Fold this protein.
Amino acid sequence: MGAYIVEEIERDFYILRVNDRYTRYFEALWEIPEGITYNAYLLRTPEGAVLFDGWKKIFSEKLVELLESLVSRDELRYIVVNHMEPDHSGSLDDVARWAPRARVLGHPMAAKMLGAYPEAKKRFKPVRDGEELRIGGEVIRFIHTPWLHWPETMVSWVESRGILVSCDVFGGFGVPYAVYDDECVRPLEALREMKKYVVTVIGHYRQWIAKNLAKLESLGVKPRIIAPAHGLAWRSRPERVVQIYRELGEARPIRGKVLIVYASMYGTTEYLIASLTRRLSRSGYHPVVYGFTDTTRPPISEVLTDAIDSEAIVLAAPTYEAGIFPFLRFVAEEICWKASDGKKAVVVSSYGWGSVAAKQLKSILEGCNYSVVKVVEYNAIGPEAISPGEAERIASEVLEALSG
Ligand code: FEO
């Protein structure tokens, strides 16, 4: 079910990583055929060891076994819970039971969330924002980073080493072969996986990215190594990763990128979108197209990933049961919930016996600050319901609206 990596990142600082290829829908929502890793970290000192975060419950037996190969149960003095979501905290009680002397450290709010972990709850000690732990010559500062991903989330700044144990922050999906970014043969892929994690998991709280990054900066946190709880550890140019993360928080658009998402039950909308895509490409735009049809169904996690940095979006959906075609309704609502930022939008909709989808899509998008610059509606059913000339005319109008 999982493969495990234990590696000494540098003297007495270890990564314990499990590659989870079993989970297909993260949070039971987001398609991740590429899998995900959970990374815990262990710091050994002459006065005892500190474990940062853990793994999902199904892997906890293995985590304990691996810990046992590195430290004795009495040597583990602290278990730090940077974040209570069970992809990191699931192993908490198994580890706590194994290490009878360990205190459990976390955000004060975590205390209320420890119901499922009675052993950890007994030994829980809340840490204040900025509180310092000194152990065996190491200095660890706990910094609260609310809403990245939950309100109780914090990061552990191992000041004595310049290592930021950042939990969800800077984390990405995927199971890279490498542990570090500078060993990764597909660094761009890893950055896209980070983007996908940000949008799908943290996207709704995006505005907290800038606030928390500013807070870390003001506290003088300039990491040499960023050690997140998912995906790669970043050590080649950590400042670049911080900058990319900031841009994601701002939903900074890539010039000319247009996300087109359409649903086409019988081919009419698909035909129209093909014309529009050609037209946009010829005019210097970079359309990224996802279609829900009777032969294709793209992962919505990928659609959202491309929404965050698009300059504009085009949503095209037929009316279905007096509403929006269901997948497109979900896409529109999730774009609003996680990736909206006052950009331009175009709504396209076909209908047979009643027109509803266009109105509803427009209302969803305007409700989250999109500027709907064009609505195209046509009464047509079937693959040849729109003539080439008509498709070209509509494509021109959309292009004009986007360029205006
Ligand atoms: Fe990776 Fe919010 O959990």
Observations:
- Residues 258-403 form a domain with the Rossmann fold fold (CATH 3.40.50.360).
- The chain is about 30% helix and 30% strand.
